[in-house]
Design brief:
The protein has 477 residues and is α+β, with helices and mostly antiparallel strands. It has 3 domains: 163 residues, PAS domain (Beta-Lactamase, 2-Layer Sandwich); 88 residues, Helix Hairpins, CATH 1.10.287.130; 152 residues, Heat Shock Protein 90 (2-Layer Sandwich), CATH 3.30.565. The protein contains 10 helices and 12 strands. It binds adenosine-5'-diphosphate. The site of adenosine-5'-diphosphate has 20 residues, from helix 8, helix 9 and helix 10.
Amino acid sequence: MVRWPSTLRWRLTLWYIVLLGVPLIAFALGGYYLFERTLYERTDRFIGDALTAFSREVGAERRAASGAMSAMQTTANEVRFRDLHIAILDSAHRVVAMTPPQPGPTRDEPPTDDAWLVRALAGRNLDNPQVLTVPRADGDYRVISTPLIVTGERFGLTGTYGLSDIDEMLARMRQVFIVVLPLLIICAATGGYFVTTRSLAPVSLMAARAAEISTANLQERLPVGGSEELVKLARVVNDLLDRLEASFALQRQFMADASHELRTPTTILRTEADVTLAQTHRSEEDYRTSISVMRDAAQRLGRIVDDLFLLVRTDAGHLVPRRDALYLEDIVDSATRGVRPVAAQRGVHVELRELVEAPFEGDADQLGRLLLNLLDNAIKHSPEGGTVDVALTRGNGAVAISVVDQGEGIPADARARVFERFFRVDDARSDGERASIPGAGLGLAIARRIAELHGGRLEVVESRPGRTEFRLTLPVS
Ligand code: ADP
């Protein structure tokens, strides 16, 4: 079974051959057939006209001469048509008259004996016109016979014309086709092969370059060149590489930040354990203090690992929020109540300013966590004796939950970055004033992800010394 080639280059080349070859062959065959027909028609017309003129001449001779036989023989001897042999056969297929051999060099002089003509017309009724091609050792002959009536007697008037000229012309034409057609097809194939090779060269180059790109050299790009489609393809792949590189860089940064964050509590744990183990005699009180330091460090470690796990799951698309029917006012109310004892320890008052009824479809746990992150930040950054205001309002097809504190605010240049993973204003500043505020810089990143997963938005609406407002907007139908 013939198999279609697998490479594009050979497929296109084959298409070239088929698309050029088939019409070319059809055109050649059609042209040849038409030419052949025209030549035969012209020959037949010539023989027919000659026979008409001959029979008219026989009639005239008949009127002038005495008998039919002598009229036919006289006409046959006197009337000549170049290269045409005329013979008259009676109803018994006997030759009664025929033109003598032509003097001088003539083209195909048909054989002048009558036997072959009689044989060729054997079995044919000469009362009807006959057209036939008779093959002979020296070439084909066209024989046309028409009925001829002289003094009431019926004869067959035949004209014989050699076809060697026509056959030669047709043979030459066939030879030209046999040479030229394959040549043209070979030209098309070679041309097609070179054109496709040339146009596909950038693809091969792109493939070679793409094969070299790995995580180690992700900054490399494909060469942009060639036809419009290839330029487009190279750009699309390069854009993909841009995104991949950015994503890899982000991933690397994330790993670096995560290990950095995990290092602090791990170091505390190890140091505390080393110090405790190095001292032989310690009081119960000392052990308790050490263990509580270790527990805090372990708690911090646990929190960071939980947060990281949650972020990784949202990145991988595994954290699909539930769509439970819930009331946002319940979540706001319970979160506010939940943080009040911690806030009170720091001398901060948490106030619920406004609470509308807000039915919503979402994940109560995730939304509660979001709110706790906001409240936790607000309390951490509030001055002693300060107030954190919480409000749940409704308007414009959305509900808004805002958390306002009276803390030192977020510097303008850090406002957009607080939602980035591991970003902490406290790390960015070196005044040491806020360095004591705990946190790994993941709370707001998680909060914003949860808001987005619920089709909502979390943003810093306002932040200046004495007033910072975070607002969560959720769409409600
Ligand atoms: P963290 O766990 O460190 O609080 P977050 O992602 O919750 O991490 O916050 C990122 C940073 O944004 C914090 O380190 C803090 O510097 C700043 N920030 C967040 N909330 C407030 C706020 N209410 N007032 C001032 N700064 C804030």
